[in-house]
Amino acid sequence: MAADAGVAAGQARSPSRAARAIRDLHPGYFAFVMATGIISTGTFLLGPSWLSRALLVVAAAGLVVLSVALVIRLVRFRPSVVADIRAPERVFGFFTITAGLDVLGVRLSYAGHPVATAILAVLAAALWLVLTYGVPASLLLARAHDSVLGGVNGTWLLWVVSTQSLAVTASTLVLARPSQSGLLAAAAVGLWSVGLVLYLLLVSLIVLRWLTVPMTPEALGPPYWILMGATAITVLAGAWILKLPAALPAVRATSGFVEGFSYALWAFGTWWIPLLIVLGFWRHVRHHWPLTYEPTLWSVVFPLGMYSVATLSFGKAAGLAFMAPLSRFMLWVAVAAWVMVTAAFLARRPGEPVRRSGA
């Protein structure tokens, strides 16, 4: 009887399945909201409209569920959160929260809810300010001896994605708040410029890491697709800036530069796609890495959806007709990827742990 009481006490002390899921919640899980939201936007622009509405509901529900889980994690499992903050291979995943808020906000603006867009944009901007200075400060000041170079991976580019998502949202709100159009346009162009410079810096770090740290199948994870996704959202932000009234000072001063650099980044992002496929082949076929569900797979779905929307938007803004059919094709590739990742998530055995790699 004493033994049975001990077992019962141990079971009572062990966290439930839901508690374990919240404790181990990957900091980049809001990429689910990003992926679902951008595909909802793509299907809004290209159809079918029923799929767009359904995905909008799923994205909004995902944001609510993940936000509640994050709050519980901050309250009950603070050491786990602190561990993520101190891990250079995972800490940039928190930028998915900002990007998720903005991507959903842009979709809501298409649905005719500019107030909801503005509220989400304010929340995203506040969080971005905390992260954009807190994360690099923690990496620079809190690590006295070891190097962070080994922790550099594709998630670092989420810093770029979140910055450009704010640029897109600021551009979106120009039409909804014409009295603030000058300030919003200046903010959009400024954030776009910051994101552009960050992309160039972080890609250099990633290439340096590839050349100096041995590559392993575990390290070469799904977030490297953000190499393409970060260019795509930069192109989308550039397209939105080009659609702003040309008389606005910030637009008048930079439109030529924004258009030229956006096309260059679109081409570079397109160049990334075959290489990323080759790297995936090396990981899963050459080295037999199991293709099972992990939260970072949403970091593959989001770039595919963002590439579609960015290609369509920039093609219209720059008058490049050849981009429209490519955008439609890539949208269905993104939808297929979303379905496969969702199916992999639903097919997990009850209680099966989710792989929580940093890469």
Structure description:
- The chain is mainly alpha-helical and 359 residues long.
- The chain has a single domain, classed as Alpha/alpha barrel (Glycosyltransferase), CATH 1.50.10.150.
- The chain is globular.
- It contains 13 helices and no strands.
Which key features would you list for this structure?
Glycosyltransferase, globular, 74% helix, mainly alpha
By DSSP, the count of extended strands is 0
The residue ranges in which pLDDT falls below 50 over 5 or more consecutive positions are 7-12
SSE arrangement, N to C: HHHHHHHHHHHHH
Q: For the record, give the distance between the C-alpha atoms at the N and C termini, rounded to a whole number.
A: 47 Å
Estimate the global geometry from the Cα principal axes. globular
Rg result: 21 Å
So how many helices? 13
Structural class: mainly alpha
What percentage of the residues does DSSP assign to strands (E)? under 5%
What is the CATH top level name? Mainly Alpha
CATH architecture field = Alpha/alpha barrel
- Bin the helical content: over 70%
- Rounded mean pLDDT is 90
Q: How many strands, which pairing sense, and closed or not: the largest β-sheet?
A: none
CATH-defined superfamily: Voltage-dependent anion channel
Number of domains: 1
Give me the CATH fold name. Answer: Glycosyltransferase
